[in-house]
Every structure is written in C-alpha cells, then in structure tokens.
Amino acid sequence: MVGHAEQADQHLAGSVALETPVLADVLMAAEELWPESLAEEWDRVGLVVGRVDADVERIMFAVDPTLEVIDEALEWGAQLLITHHPLLLKGVNSVAATSGKGRAVHRLIEGGCALLTVHTNGDSAVGGVSDVLADAIGLSDVQPLMPATHGLPEEGIGRVGVLDGAQKLGDLAARIFLMLPAVAGGVRVGGDKDALVHKVAVCGGSGDSLFDAVRASDADVYVTADLRHHPASEAREARADGKPYLIDLSHFASEWLWLPAAMAALGNVLADQGFAAELALSQTNTDPWDFILTPGN
Q1: In the predicted model, what is the mean pLDDT of residues 118-126?
Q2: CB of 270 within 8 A of CB of 47?
Q3: How far apart are CA 168 and CA 176, in angstroms?
Q4: Which of 73, 123, 173, 222 is the most exposed, having the fewest neighbouring CB atoms within 10 Å of its CB?
Q5: Nearest 5°: phi and psi at 155?
Q6: Where are the alpha helices (DSSP H) in 77-153?
Q7: Which residues, in sequence order, are bridge partners of residue 58?
Q8: Closest Cα to residue 5, out of 280, 297, 201?
C-alpha cells in the first residue's frame, strides 16, 4: 500500500490556483462519480456525519469505517473519510459511546471528520469496484452481470468479459492472488487448476447472490468473495463440466483494489470544478481474520 506522505503530494498540476472545497462541493463531485440512485434498495449510502459547509482539505479513502481506520484518518488530519462499507447499514436507536458504532460516530464528530459511504452505488457505477477488478484481471468486452435498473447500459452489479486468450485456472488464480493486498485467508479455488478459462465473471465483495446471472452469462469462472458452502457447492454441481469454476477472494481485498482508482477519479472531478484537496489511502488492513490453519501448518 502507498504511504500517506507520498499520496498527500499527489496534487494535480496547477493545484496552487485551486480552492479548498467545502463538504458540499465534495458531495457534488461524489454524486457525479457514484450516483446514489445506483445504490440497491436495501443499502444505506451517502453522508453519515458532517457539516456541509465545513472546509475539506484532506480526504482519506478506506474499505471499512472501523475504529482503527477512523483513528488513522484523524491522526492524519482528514476532514472527510470516504468508505466503501456503511457504518450504519441497519437501523439504530442510539449512538451512545457505549457501543462500537456509537464510539465511531463520537470520534468522527469530536475529531471534526465527516463520513461518506459509497457502497453499492460504487459497485454499480462506471469505474466502480467490479470494473476495477475486471481491468486488473485484464478483461475486455466487459458488460454488467446485472444491469442497473436506473442507470446507463454499462452500469450495474458485477461484470463479465473475456481474457486475451485462454488461461489455466491455476495461473489466473495465482495472478489475482499477487495483485491483492495480503490477507490471512489467501485465495480459494474450485476447479481443476489446469482447466482452461476464457470468459470471466467478477463481482467485488459478496457475490453468491449473482449465481443465476453468472450461469446465464456462460462464464467459465467466477471471481468474487465470501462464497458460502451451499451456494458454491450447488453452483459446481449445476453443470456436468463443473463450470463456472470459482475463485473466492477476501471481501476486503477484492474491494481494496477500487480505492486508488476512486481516489484518482475524485481528485480529477474536484480539479475540473476548481477545487483541490489532499487525498490518501488508509493503510489499515480491515480484513477481520488474523491467521488461518491449513494442513501442514
């Protein structure tokens, strides 16, 4: 991961003439990139805490709004933390500092740092989580797995595309493993490592709800995260040839890839609108697992 000091210097050329945005300006830029209308109905995206008239000189990006990430953002001096995962996905009737969620809200407000969630709208948008994953793998002719109901034809959840020639399943899995941040769980693969694959479906984050769309796409392999036993087993037995093969990633790792692209995109939009802010990526690994036991260790 790239250090804060290096990222803080990544100003766009001519930024000395640009103004510091207020939070409302950043929210407008974020809406241009990741419209809230693209969020799933069950999701909770948008501004969680923050005053829209507050200056925003420093913005940090992270996958999760954990207490450790919030402390990191405050220590760096961020006035805005943008996370992929929501802090308050389910309803609460208290944000007292007696709970983890409450302590997070208190730390943000007391530290003068706003929180913005870009979740399934960031998944669905052009240049979103699955687009970045598809680009990293090297897919072309990319289309959404589940097109957005209210969006452009190229927007939606998940992506499917083709590799530049057939590859062995084991080689593809190894290449994906090397491009991800290190996590305890590594990468799990279902299928013959020497099987050839060409058409690839991807979905950053938990993707086992998309198996019907993956099968309809006729993908040879499905790259996603958080695959559960029964959906994965049923998917492998649905066809006699065992396709789609499965490459199961860490939820955190699969979505972390999006952060640098999101940071660059926001910086460009702000610059186009006459604003500049220092942008940084969180260096905190928020994968929840610390170690794994396997045969032989």
Answers
A1: 97
A2: no
A3: 13
A4: 173
A5: -100, 150
A6: 100-110, 120-124, 129-137
A7: 278
A8: 280
- Torsion sign (Cα): 170, 173, 179, 180: negative
Rounded Cα distance, 217 and 201, in Å: 8
Rounded Cα distance between 81 and 280, Å, is 10
Mean pLDDT of 60-79: 98
Are 35 and 2 in contact by the 8 Å Cβ rule? The answer is no
Within 8 A by CB and 6+ apart from 234, the residues are: 211
Grouping H, G, I as helix, E, B as strand and the rest as coil, residue 207 is coil
Residue 275 is encoded by which pair of tokens? 């604003």
The values of phi and psi at residue 209, to 5°, are: -80, -10
Six-digit token string for 65: 């709004």
Query: What is the H or E stretch that residue 46 is in?
Result: strand 46-49
**DSSP structure class, residue 15:** G
Whole-angstrom CA distances from 177 to 137, 140, 181 are 11, 20, 8
Instruction: Tell whether the torsion through CA atoms of 47, 88, 281 and 256 is positive or negative.
Output: negative
**Within 13 A of 214's CA, how many CA atoms are on the CB side?**
25
Q: What is the pLDDT of residues 31-51, one digit of tens each?
A: 999 999 999 999 999 999 999
Instruction: Say if residues 258 and 204 touch (Cβ distance below 8 Å).
Output: yes
> For the chain, how many helices (H) and strands (E)?
11, 11
> Are 229 and 211 within 8 A, CB to CB?
no
Map tokens 């419209």 to a residue.
35
Backbone angles phi, psi at 99, to 5 degrees: -125, 165
**Model pTM score:** 0.92
Pairing of strands 140-147, 156-168: antiparallel
C-alpha distances in angstroms, 257 versus 3, 103, 179?
15, 28, 9
Q: How confident is the model at residue 96 (pLDDT cuts 50, 70, 90)?
A: confident
